[in-house]
Design goal:
By secondary structure, the protein is of the alpha+beta class. It is built from 6 helices and 6 strands; from the N terminus they run H-E-H-H-E-E-E-E-H-E-H-H.
């Protein structure tokens, strides 16, 4: 009993990595967060951590989810899952990570569009988008 009391008293000072990932809304459940950590999908300061690793402010965390990779720096510690805007306050995503995610998302959209041609002729907006893509690929 005293261990649980001690842990809740320290509150925001000592937070497990799996709890922080859950609170920051990278995973829907702590179990999924733990499985991702154990599966090597999460890096903490460049190392492969255990789920019980205590996180610190300013640490760099890489999270691989599907074809998306997030690289974030921990700003605040929390064990409690709040709303999405509250969760975003817990970390700052690096600029390189944002750019890479946006580029990968654009490539995925283009691949899907290339695989599934439209059933009808493209409208004016779609034609302009196709022309823009063609121009970028030729340069």
């Amino acid at each position: 009993m005293s261990k649980k009391g001690d842990q809740s008293d320290s509150g925001s000072e000592r937070v497990r990595l799996d709890k922080w990932l859950w609170a920051a809304r990278f995973f829907k459940t702590r179990t999924l967060a733990r499985e991702a950590i154990e599966g090597g999908k999460v890096r903490y300061e460049g190392q492969r951590p255990k789920a019980g690793k205590f996180v610190t402010q300013g640490a760099k965390v890489q999270v691989h989810k599907g074809s998306t990779t997030f690289e974030v720096i921990i700003d605040e510690l929390s064990e409690k899952r709040g709303s999405a805007p509250q969760a975003e306050m817990l970390y700052t995503e690096t600029e390189a990570s944002k750019e890479k995610r946006e580029e990968n998302a654009w490539r995925r959209r283009m691949m899907v569009a290339a695989e599934h041609p439209p059933a009808r002729r493209p409208n004016k907006k779609q034609r302009r988008e196709l022309q823009r893509v063609k121009n970028q690929m030729s340069h």
